[in-house]
Amino acid sequence: MLAESQTLRHRRREQIRSRGLLLSPALLTILGFLIAPLFIVLVYSFLTPGTFGGVIWDWTFDAYVQFLFERDIFDESLVFSTAYLEIYSRSFVQAIVTTVGSLLIGFPTAYFIATRPDRQKTMWVLLVTVPYWVNLLIRTIAMLFLIRDEGPLNHALISAGLIDGPVRIAYTNIGVGLGLIYSYLPFMVLPIYATIERFDFRLLEAAYDLYADRWTILFKIILPICLPGVVAGSLLVFIPSLGAFIQPNLLGGGKNLMIGNLIALQFQSARNWPFGAAAAMILMTVVLLALIFYTRHQMRHRVPGH
Amino acid sequence: MKQSPSEQVAVGIDDVVKIYGEGTAVVTALNRVSLEINDNEFFTLLGPSGCGKTTILRCIAGFEQVNAGHILLFGEEIDELPPNRRPVNTVFQHYALFPHMTVAANVGFGLKMLKRPASEVSDVVLRMLRLVHMEHLADRRPTQLSGGQQQRVALARALASQPKVLLLDEPLSALDLKLRQEMRVELKLLQEETGITFIFVTHDQEEALTMSDRIAVMSQGEIQQIGRPRDIYERPVNHFVADFIGDTNFFDVTVESIEHDRAVCVLPGGARVMAEAVNGCKPGDSVSLSVRPEKIKLRPSDTGGQLAGRVARPIYLGTDTHYKVQLSGDLSVVARVQNAHENAASVQVGDAVVLEFDPGSVVMLRD
């Protein structure tokens, strides 16, 4: 008995050791390229900005204070300021609109692909990913050409008689939204496609047989069952949209500052590294809190046996 | 309360044609099928896979559009109605329970879609779950249930909105044998209790024989025979039905003479057997005869006679023993003897025997 349990324990230890060995490249990568840089950002957010960029090793909360308060130039007193909060809320609205837009386009697309014959599916999935073979910057500039005042989109709308003169799309929030949806749409389509692919379409017949109409079937049967894919896709679109830098910069003309631009600005021309670091930390904290809240909510409503 | 099938026609299938595919890959699933299913009847569509039985069910449910002909529900054409507007419900082969809903929500789904008040829905759900003995599992998810339990929930769900006709698409095929046998009895009781017309699709002849009021045997998109289980088994009209239902012996014979509906038929070996003549058969015709193994008696005999042969191979099956008997003229016949007495052992391989059977148990087939 004793010998048996000892060999068992030994085998278990072996198992853990070999598993650790297999995991080590991933662990090292995460440690070296995610945790360590994040730690540097965290530390920098508590330092004092140097005059020509960089940091001075004086510990301070100034960066975080600056986020919510403005220092009066005359008496040095702190006044509550919503300037940065506005940038954050603008970015959140932009990210939400992008997510909803991607969902509205992505869900039917994913449904379409998942209901094709097996051989066609692979081709459609490949087509969805084709834009990713081109650099994001180039794609965004291409988008700019499409939506500018004299671009093909405006031309098409004018010749279709829908509008009289060119409508301003480039350098507006709508332009940024279009660019973001275009950039992140595959992140929405692919996870939803994966869940619909596994969906048992016989359930549709069952619901149809039980007096449900098409919209009820969509909202009571398909969507709830495919919810994990919808959630995964939404997160994959929402998070990068929130911190997006290239699209607001190029398509928005940098007029309306977004979180991404704010952070970039601090590290570049504003030469306030600690504030840039603090802004990044605040963004990450908000996203993490939202994720934790969501996961807990999911756990509580988790279907037993699923 | 037992309600016997009434004469009112619940479902009428009128000259229905269903074709799948296009161009060169056309398959005729239903070839001018007509049949009438009475109210309160347990009606079974029986046939091998691909015979068109499920297609009929799907046409009644509304999942398939017929290419020609009509489907009538209590005298009214329902061809134009989508499935969600037909007062019929289906029990699917793989149950198709909604995995994100509880058992109770599954059962109540149809009523909710019909916008019945919540109190009525919960009452009916409870009643239905009691009917199928599942009330204690109302809050479970379908994935937490065994196959038999899922089956019951699927039944309760389909019955909850009190359809005029219940369609059952091989609902027992995914269950193991013991459970299947139990559910047969339960299904029949349920049908009698609810008085709802059941249309049951199966490829299992035993299922069909034990539960049905009437059976339609199908093959290659056509109905071969419609009748009570006893008629189908005892009086098959053609080779296909005789072969598909139960075991049988076929004899290719020539009709020698006919007298008072009795035909004298000559076997290839020259032996003569009597059979009931079917309409329109005349001396000189080549026909097939079918004799069920259990109708054949074996008499030990060394004297020879009309149907004399030797026992080639006995197969012991517990309740019965099958004896393969080699006759003259390269004919072999299987006889089934019940192992009621020890005498089963009295016939040995190589023994000379004479076959005896009643002329009434010899069926002349129409093809």
Describe the structure.
The complex is a heterodimer of chains A (306) and B (367). Chain A has 306 residues and is mainly alpha-helical. Chain A folds into two domains: 44 residues; 218 residues, Orthogonal Bundle (MetI-like fold). Helix content of chain A is 72%, strand content 3%. Chain A is built from 13 helices and four strands. In chain A, strands 1-2 form a two-stranded antiparallel sheet. In chain A, strands 3-4 form a two-stranded antiparallel sheet. The model of chain A has no long low-confidence stretch (mean pLDDT 88). Chain B is α+β, with helices and mostly antiparallel strands and 367 residues long. Chain B is built from eight helices and 20 strands. Chain B has a six-stranded mixed β-sheet, sandwiched between helices. Chain B is elongated. The mean pLDDT of chain B is 89. At the A-B interface, helix 8 and helix 9 of A face strand 6 and helix 2 of B.
